Amino acid sequence: MSIPFLKVQGAGNDFLLIDALGENAHRNQIDWSAVAPRICDRHFGVGADGILIAQDTDVAAARMVIVNSDGSDGEMCGNGFRCFTKYLVERAGMTPTDGSLAIETGAGVLHADLSAMTSTDASVDRVRVDMGPAWLEADQIPVVHEGPAPILHHEVEVNGRVYDLTCVSMGNPHVVWFTDEEVDEFPLTEIGPLIETHPDFPRKTNFEIVNVLAPDHLKMRVWERGVGITLACGSGACAVLVAARLRGLSDASATVSLPGGDLDIAWDGLDDPSASVYMTGPATFSFEGQLDANLLSVR
């Protein structure tokens, strides 16, 4: 048995995309969580930050299921969402309605704006995503914290140092640390897993470290929950802009620079917490291949 896959990436955040739509629905019977660590291994597998699975649903054009490289579930991934949208339009033959495509995710049904991104030949290079509102209550994020939302200052001590974190959920948990230290020099490999698994975060957390270069330009690196260091994190970039806006550090829109490239993020939610966060960025197909039985077997 072999299963075709498409390797995709958005700003360097890379995934294997599996089509389990329609007649391919039998591929959902594979225990993707069990085989993901082997498939995503960059030495013994194909190599990826995670797996995206396209499934049928009654509430949207398709459902996007995310399996992280360690086999854990991922509720939402902005970079993956853009690549997923590109696949649905270019390969699965789905047509946007009034320039928009609805996709079900673990964070609810979200919408990809393709009105200005899809050319006459139906190719998709950039996608604007309505990521929905940021979740700011402690039980929504979730985080163990006393006090009202938004949680602008939540201190945790790791390796003898206290980190002042801003807590945001974009359907998945994020904590953002603003620092004057150069983010490229920060020991993220050492500190990231300790923040991710800190007991204050009952579902673990993504950890973003940020330099504010200007009110319209933020620079970040990320330790992703269940993955580790990645070149980009779309939901993380959204959380960073929300956190910066809440703390008076940024404009309502800004470019967020990540190791894999730039994302444009906008949120005008200071007076309206229900306002959506919008993310615009690239989506790219890298190559196609076949996963053989050796990689798909559960050992």
User: Level of helix content?
Assistant: 10-25%
Kindly state the number of beta strands: 18
Structural category: alpha+beta
Mean pLDDT: 95
H-E string: EEHEEEHEEEEEEHEEEHEEEEH
Total DSSP helices: 5
The whole-angstrom Rg is 19 Å
Measured distance between first and last alpha carbons:
16 Å
Shape: globular
Largest sheet: 18 strands, mixed
Low-confidence stretches: none
How much of the sequence is in beta strands? 35-45%
Describe the structure.
- The protein has 299 residues and is α+β, with helices and mostly antiparallel strands.
- The protein contains 5 helices and 18 strands.
- It has an 18-stranded mixed sheet that branches.
- It is globular, with a radius of gyration of 19 Å.
Which features would summarize this protein structure in a list?
alpha+beta, 18 strands, 299 residues, single chain, 16% helix, 41% strand, globular, 18-stranded mixed β-sheet
Give the SSE map.
Blueprint: E1 3-10, E2 13-20, H1 32-39, E3 50-55, E4 62-68, E5 73-74, H2 78-90, E6 100-105, E7 108-113, E8 126-133, E9 151-158, E10 161-169, E11 173-178, H3 188-196, E12 206-214, E13 217-224, E14 228-230, H4 234-246, E15 253-258, E16 261-267, E17 276-282, E18 284-291, H5 293-296
Parallel strand pairs: 2-3, 4-6, 11-12, 13-15
Antiparallel strand pairs: 1-2, 1-18, 3-4, 4-5, 6-7, 7-8, 8-17, 9-10, 10-11, 12-13, 13-14, 15-16, 16-17
